[in-house]
Structures are given as C-alpha cells and as structure tokens.
Amino acid sequence: MATDVVTNSARAEVLRRIHEAKGGVADAEMVRAGWNSIERRYRRKATLPREAVLELLEDRLLDYDARVVRAGNSKVAVTVARMLLERRVRRMVVPAGVTPEWLPGGIEFVVDEGLAATELDRVDGVLTGATLAIAETGTVVLQNTAGQGRRAVTLVPDYHLCVVRAGDVVETVSEAMERLQATAGLATTFVSGPSATADIEMTRIKGVHGPRFLDVILVG
Questions:
Q1: Contact 168, 96 (CB under 8 A)
Q2: Coil, strand or helix: which one is 94?
Q3: pTM, entire model
Q4: Which of 1, 55, 104, 133 is surrounded by the fewest CB atoms within 10 Å?
Q5: How far apart are CA 110 and CA 104, in angstroms?
C-alpha cells in the first residue's frame, strides 16, 4: 500500500511539472483556438473530372492487387454471380441490411447475426457495400451499419467482394474525412487492397490482418 502511495505521488508530481512547463492545463477554448490556428495548405477539394476520379480509384486498387469491374445499377447481381463463379465461391456471408437486388441465385448467402469467428472462418467470403471510397489512396471505407456490418465480418473471411457506388467515390482524403463527420461515432475500417504484410526479409504474406483476396464492383 505504501509503495502505491509513493508511486502515485511521484506520478502526480511529474504530471504537475509537465503541465507547469507547458503553461498549465489547457481548457477547451485554448484547444479549439490552437486547432483552428494550424495552417492547412494541403489539397482539400477534388481537382480531377469525375471519370478521372473513378479511373484513379481503379488504378490504385489494381496496383494493390485487388480486382475491379464496373457494372450498371441493374447489373450488380449478374456481375456478382460472374465474379463468384470465377472465384469458385459458393457460400458467402452478408451483413444484415445488404441490398437484396445484389444477391444472385445459386449462391448460399448467410446473414450475419452475430456469427462466431469460427463460423465466419467456414464461409468462402463476404459481400458488403461501402460508405465511400477514396480515389487518391485506393481506399474503401466500411462502417458498422446496414449493408456493411461489423468489423469481424470483413476481417475473418478469406475473400471480400465489395460493392461501391460511383457516387460515393471521392478524390481526396480530406473530402472523405468531411463526409465521415456525420457518422464519426461508428466503428470505421479503411481497406486499401487485400491484407498483406512483410517480415524483416521483405517476404510478402497475404491474409494476416484480413482477407487475402479483394474484388470491387464499381456501380453506376
């Protein structure tokens, strides 16, 4: 007990000295003023034509070893069926609230209702929508919401097929952050290509942090 008192007292003294050296504890107004005074010279708005933004997203995703195809609004299910056939996938998990028109016949779709990780590991893959995509970084942004589901659903299966609406593609990270402000309280995952990592010898390994394979259908 005595040791704990001494430790806490020493910690409090260290923190007191740090606060004193920094001019005291900042209040909310000081923090806000400091934040607003930061110069922001980075690009915050799109500069490319709309089609160029979509092409940039495709280019980035392909560079990350993902597959990308385009589909009209009425052709999503047909495109999903073709891509799953090419992947030899027969059993997919989908989050609650996924758009029914995206799901073709001939595939077993299992709705996630709190499936355990071991159950998620037994499916061939997952199909979801997306909140938005960032062209300059080749990033798909997923949130814990209807049609996208909880994080485990998109991390455990070995394959992820993601449907992204063209209207939800932005050019810059700044635009994405601005759009995400409205749903900032939701769990959010940023996906840039299939999961891949490398050890100290630069041996590239897929699937350590998520799906080894990523396909994206760009709709509209």
A1: no
A2: strand
A3: 0.80
A4: 1
A5: 13
Of 99, 161, 90, which Cα lies nearest the Cα of 127?
161
Kindly state the greatest CA–CA separation across the chain: 72
Q: How far, in Å, CA of 99 to CA of 115, rounded?
A: 20
Q: Which amino acid is at 113?
A: E
Element (H, E) at 99: none
> What pLDDT, on a 0 to 100 scale, did the predictor assign at position 9?
82
For residues 130-163, b (16+ Cβ closer than 10 Å) or e, as one string? bbbbbbbbbbbbbbbbebbbbeebbbbbbbbbbb
Distance CA(136)–CA(74), nearest Å, equals 28
Instruction: Name residues of the chain where pLDDT drops below 50.
Output: 1, 3
Question: Which element (helix H / strand E) includes 167?
Answer: none
Alpha helices, DSSP H, located in 48-114: 50-63, 76-87
Q: How far apart are the first and last CA of the chain?
A: 66
CA distance 24 to 188: 34
Q: So what's the pLDDT on residue 191?
A: 94
Residue whose C-alpha is closest to residue 220's, from 18, 47, 51: 51
**Would you list the DSSP string of 108-134?**
EEEEPSS--HHHHTTSSEEEE--SEEE
pLDDT for position 44: 77
Hunting for tokens 């996924």 — which residue is that?
98
Q: In the prediction, which pLDDT does 31 show?
A: 79
